[in-house]
Amino acid sequence: MTLLIDNIGELSTQHLAGEASLGSGGAAGVIRGAAVVLEGERIAWVGRSSSAPAADERYDAGGRAVLPGWVDSHSHLVFAGDRTAEFEARMAGQAYAAGGIGVTTAATRAASDGELRRLLAARVAEAVAGGTTYLETKTGYGLDVENERRSAVLAGEVADEVTYLGAHLVPAGADPEAYTELVCGEMLEAVRPHVRWADVFCDRGAFTEDQSRRVLLACRDAGLGLRVHGNQLGRGPGVRLAVEVGAASVDHVNFVDDADLEALAGTWEGWAAAGSPGGAGVVATAGTVATVLPACDLSTRAPLAPARALLDAGVQIAIASNCNPGTSYTSSMNFCVATAVLQMGLSVQEAVRAATFGGALALRRNAGEDADGKRAVGSVAVGHRADLHVLDAPSATHLAYRPGMPLTHAVWRAGTRVR
Ligand SMILES: N=CN[C@@H](CCC(=O)O)C(=O)O
Ligand SMILES: [Zn+2]
């Protein structure tokens, strides 16, 4: 079955190859008067409406803007309970501290599989309704062998990518060294079959540099890709360590100094962006993505991550929701993108790119073979996964121009209409 989506006012492909031949009409990767043909789960054709091929079915976009679906590369959706009281205390002036994770851990351990499944499904449905079509989520509220394994299994039932975050917090009463050993040993072994990534919260009140390094190296030895929660609560070793171990991304990055910026930028030297001379985002040479989390920064009243300075230094960035009950209880990528434009100094196209292609890059899914299970996401091009987000607006600019408005009009995920 093929579906032609035509009469697209502005198609933001985030794919630079072919841009010149199609006529960008301004911003990179943008086609005006565009059409896309979907064939099953893949994109089969992209171009101008006037030259679109016939298809079995047709959807008239009515002049609306179309983007790749959001790629939310950082969330924590496997949890029970809520932390309203902690949020209220924070709004009254109390600083965020890692210890709140323990409250959610207690509630999560007490929840049945059925209850966690129901909560997870509802959260994923909310994200999809907001235009998210590719989603990473983490363990990290189990913090013992069985609850971390259970979290990974449940996450894998609904998320596209699952990350092991046993090193989220040393549980109350546990010895930090003994717990680190557990995370590197028995817990890793139990979780390993169910995850692709490992992450560490390397920050004050969580894991030290040395403990974080041990966890990351053990997980790398086990064949997992690496991610780091770093430099959220203050200056520290997170960014440096992420670069040292070759992590695919370091997330939060609120407190970075010049040396951190330089280290991150160094990982991108020589990298060929998709469509630029030299190749199509060659995965092997991609560096460490800096993932900024605008909703988290607002909800914790933290200094905003320096997205503008990161981009200007040559670092590839992603924007993600960090949806979790402690620091960022929203999965709205529309909101994150609007905030990145209004508060972080990004252009709309930069923010859209970070929330689509950037997320895909952070998950190493920006390029792929034209085959089931290996399709690229986060950009609109032939052979990529058919993940599309139709806005109820003529341009992506409206995301920031009309913040908070319900602009998600229709969503296709892997070729299936999900909204
Ligand atoms: N910073 C570490 N982890 C989460 C917060 C977890 C929590 O407070 O429950 C984050 O990314 O913000
Ligand atoms: Zn997080």
From TrEMBL:
<keyword id="KW-0369">Histidine metabolism</keyword>
<dbReference type="InterPro" id="IPR011059">
    <property type="entry name" value="Metal-dep_hydrolase_composite"/>
</dbReference>
<feature type="binding site">
    <location>
        <position position="76"/>
    </location>
    <ligand>
        <name>Zn(2+)</name>
    </ligand>
</feature>
<feature type="binding site">
    <location>
        <position position="324"/>
    </location>
    <ligand>
        <name>N-formimidoyl-L-glutamate</name>
    </ligand>
</feature>
<comment type="pathway">
    <text>Amino-acid degradation; L-histidine degradation into L-glutamate; N-formimidoyl-L-glutamate from L-histidine: step 3/3.</text>
</comment>
<feature type="binding site">
    <location>
        <position position="76"/>
    </location>
    <ligand>
        <name>Fe(3+)</name>
    </ligand>
</feature>
<dbReference type="Pfam" id="PF01979">
    <property type="entry name" value="Amidohydro_1"/>
</dbReference>
<dbReference type="InterPro" id="IPR006680">
    <property type="entry name" value="Amidohydro-rel"/>
</dbReference>
<comment type="function">
    <text>Catalyzes the hydrolytic cleavage of the carbon-nitrogen bond in imidazolone-5-propanoate to yield N-formimidoyl-L-glutamate. It is the third step in the universal histidine degradation pathway.</text>
</comment>
<keyword id="KW-0378">Hydrolase</keyword>
<feature type="binding site">
    <location>
        <position position="74"/>
    </location>
    <ligand>
        <name>Fe(3+)</name>
    </ligand>
</feature>
<feature type="domain" description="Amidohydrolase-related">
    <location>
        <begin position="66"/>
        <end position="401"/>
    </location>
</feature>
<keyword id="KW-0479">Metal-binding</keyword>
<feature type="binding site">
    <location>
        <position position="229"/>
    </location>
    <ligand>
        <name>Fe(3+)</name>
    </ligand>
</feature>
<feature type="binding site">
    <location>
        <position position="229"/>
    </location>
    <ligand>
        <name>Zn(2+)</name>
    </ligand>
</feature>
<feature type="binding site">
    <location>
        <position position="168"/>
    </location>
    <ligand>
        <name>4-imidazolone-5-propanoate</name>
    </ligand>
</feature>
<protein>
    <recommendedName>
        <fullName>Imidazolonepropionase</fullName>
        <ecNumber>3.5.2.7</ecNumber>
    </recommendedName>
</protein>
<feature type="binding site">
    <location>
        <position position="327"/>
    </location>
    <ligand>
        <name>4-imidazolone-5-propanoate</name>
    </ligand>
</feature>
<feature type="binding site">
    <location>
        <position position="141"/>
    </location>
    <ligand>
        <name>4-imidazolone-5-propanoate</name>
    </ligand>
</feature>
<keyword id="KW-0408">Iron</keyword>
<feature type="binding site">
    <location>
        <position position="322"/>
    </location>
    <ligand>
        <name>Fe(3+)</name>
    </ligand>
</feature>
<comment type="similarity">
    <text>Belongs to the metallo-dependent hydrolases superfamily. HutI family.</text>
</comment>
<dbReference type="InterPro" id="IPR032466">
    <property type="entry name" value="Metal_Hydrolase"/>
</dbReference>
<feature type="binding site">
    <location>
        <position position="141"/>
    </location>
    <ligand>
        <name>N-formimidoyl-L-glutamate</name>
    </ligand>
</feature>
<feature type="binding site">
    <location>
        <position position="322"/>
    </location>
    <ligand>
        <name>Zn(2+)</name>
    </ligand>
</feature>
<feature type="binding site">
    <location>
        <position position="83"/>
    </location>
    <ligand>
        <name>4-imidazolone-5-propanoate</name>
    </ligand>
</feature>
<keyword id="KW-0963">Cytoplasm</keyword>
<dbReference type="InterPro" id="IPR005920">
    <property type="entry name" value="HutI"/>
</dbReference>
<keyword id="KW-0862">Zinc</keyword>
<feature type="binding site">
    <location>
        <position position="232"/>
    </location>
    <ligand>
        <name>4-imidazolone-5-propanoate</name>
    </ligand>
</feature>
<feature type="binding site">
    <location>
        <position position="74"/>
    </location>
    <ligand>
        <name>Zn(2+)</name>
    </ligand>
</feature>
<feature type="binding site">
    <location>
        <position position="326"/>
    </location>
    <ligand>
        <name>N-formimidoyl-L-glutamate</name>
    </ligand>
</feature>
